[in-house]
Amino acid sequence: MPVKKRLLIAGGGYAEIPLILAAKRLGFHVITSGNRADDLGHRHADEIHLEDFSNKNAMLQLARSLEIDAICASCNDFSALTAAYIAEQMQLPGHDPYETAVLIHHKDRYREFAQENQIPTPRAAGFESVQQALDQLDLFLFPVMIKPVDLTGGKGITKLERIDDARTVLEQAFQISRAKRIVIEEFVEGSRHGFSSFLRDGRVVFCFQDNEHYFQNPYLVSAASTPAIVPATTAATLCQQAEHIASLLNLKTGIFHIQYILHQGEPVIIEICRRAPGDLYIQFVQHATGINYPEFIIRAATGLDCGGINQKEPTGYFTRHCIMPSRNGLIDDVIYAPEIREQIIDQMLWWERGQQIDQFLVQKQGIVFLQFESLQEMLTRTEVLPELIRVEMK
């Protein structure tokens, strides 16, 4: 019996479960990492080695000791950076050079690159100290967004309306940033969307768009629905921009995900990344299109052939919804309204009765996938899903 190739996934949370399962189906011996022993993804791995995936040197030491054949990032920017670093140091396939990964995943580096190359992006600048930022604040049109350069999921983001409030907001953003750098960008009005594409030899061979929905936390995507309510030309525009970026940076085959704001009918790119989005987004893509997105992400990360992925549009009206409480306290129950039950096509739950919630704006208790009969039903019901799937608290 042939020896299985060893794949290290730089993480092991619930969001990595589709990647872990896809890798096992492809015949890999899957090793998970991360620094939380109770992460749900570890239950599906062949082997577990706990290590902080944001520590690229410790992860490199682990990867060498395990004699891995390939590495795949988890649904986290720190993991994407570490995976690129390990792949470069160990000459593994499927990843961009480390410096390219830093440019893509650090907000200040990306915004500078975007502005230099006429990529549609908010007017922005990066800063390395509070005083430096304060000295240049009057160069921006208010309101502005203050963001740590290296965090995702809305962490540390503040919309600054008045220059008088700047010092406290800037100090908070610098404090939460691991790199101790921030960006200031001018606020762009419009609807928010995701555009997930797959590059093969520098060309977009598959793309998928969604509508982003926000509930209690204005900077954390709580739900995503598809098809996207955007002009028919948007996909072509974003494909062109993705291929432009891929050409400038000589990007490898694999996922290329964009977050954008539709402003006056045109997409303004806010973030890009080269790893799977979180909260089972790749499973959402699979439900909506039938494309085995997790498998192709693994194929790309491990240097396998990716010739089988081609464009497919959503086959209906779908939503991915994160179950989240509306306040801190103890979970008593999760109640489904009768009229929403028949729309649920899949779910992953991990909430427990009596569980303590102390950060309700970011803590999730499960993911639910729903299918609707019409576009209007999808949009209407998605907006009230926190009421239709309600977390009752003690």
How would you sum up this structure, described in words?
With 394 residues, the protein is α+β, with helices and mostly antiparallel strands. The chain is built from 13 helices and 19 strands. The strands form 4 sheets. Strands 13-12-9-10-11-14-18-16 form an 8-stranded antiparallel β-sheet. The protein has a 4-stranded parallel β-sheet with strand order 3-2-1-4, sandwiched between helices. The protein has a 4-stranded antiparallel β-sheet with strand order 5-8-6-7, sandwiched between helices. The chain has 3 domains: 87 residues, 3-Layer(aba) Sandwich (Rossmann fold); 64 residues, Dna Ligase, domain 1, CATH 3.30.1490; 203 residues, ATP-grasp fold, B domain (D-amino Acid Aminotransferase, Chain A, domain 1, 2-Layer Sandwich). The termini are far apart. Helix 3 packs antiparallel against helix 4.
Features:
3 domains; alpha+beta; nucleotide-binding; four-stranded parallel β-sheet; 31% helix; ATP_grasp_subdomain_1; D-amino Acid Aminotransferase, Chain A, domain 1; Rossmann fold; metal ion binding; eight-stranded antiparallel β-sheet; 394 residues; 28% strand; 13 helices; Dna Ligase, domain 1; PreATP-grasp_dom_sf
